[in-house]
């Protein structure tokens, strides 16, 4: 089945965008626009891509123009997840010039950042086409923007790992060290977890993998293993658990990791290493007098 389109909470969008507008406008508003544009000035503009990529964040950009004041129209020409070519129009905006200018940067900050994540994720996902592996994100995200960055990953064809500490159990090396070993840590987590809570355990050696499988693990993270070890792990596992490769996953290596037979490949690169996609807003029509 093809994955359904990702969707954002309208409440989360409006809360984040309102905070960003408040940060930018402060107590006095947009001084430059007030100083140079009359209150009746009107402008139309196009928001377009200056390089190819994948779009994400349309809802946040639209919310910036909607929340800045009355009378701004935002007409999206593409949906999130769409591939865009250089020069292609993403949206058309029209309304009171002061409001258009005041919302521009907030809209672009969200749109450029999230489109950069979607674009890089798409490159990773395209690189492993034909394998069974899926690209996943991590919890390495910008504080306060996790829901949006993980949304952008889905727009780019990736999948989400856990969203936070509260929605799944991931037993890492430090937990294992304190708990007294792989078996002790896993059995303790199994006794604690509700029936809907997923449990994943991280291993760094084949011996730890065998111990985790013997303890009943159904999801195992293979941390910082080279491709030879990953291949051996897949063979040893023999389909008993879902295997996730993680650690040092760069674009030039992701294909070879996928070809080892792992089920998932998680990387922080798609959220923390993405360059913003270059999209810009240009006024096409202006009416009215300066202030």
SSE topology sketch:
Layout: H1 10-25, H2 31-36, E1 42-49, E2 53-54, H3 58-67, E3 73-76, E4 83-84, E5 89-96, H4 97-127, E6 134-136, H5 146-155, E7 169-171, H6 173-179, H7 182-192, E8 199-203, H8 206-214, E9 219-223, H9 227-237, E10 242-246, H10 251-258, E11 264-266, H11 269-272, E12 279-287
Parallel strand pairs: 6-11, 7-8, 8-9, 9-10, 10-11
Antiparallel strand pairs: 1-5, 1-12, 2-4, 3-5
Helix pairs in contact: 1-3, 1-4, 3-4, 4-5, 6-7, 8-9
Describe this structure in words.
By secondary structure, this protein is an alpha/beta fold. Helix content is 42%, strand content 20%. It folds into two domains: 10-116 and 275-287, Quinolinate phosphoribosyl transferase, N-terminal domain (Aldehyde Oxidoreductase, domain 3, Alpha-Beta Complex); 125-272, Aldolase class I (TIM Barrel). It is built from eleven helices and twelve strands. Strands 6-11-10-9-8-7 form a six-stranded parallel β-sheet. Strand 10, helix 10 and strand 11 form a beta-alpha-beta unit. Helix 1 (10-25) packs across helix 3 (58-67), helix 1 crosses helix 4 and helix 3 packs antiparallel against helix 4.
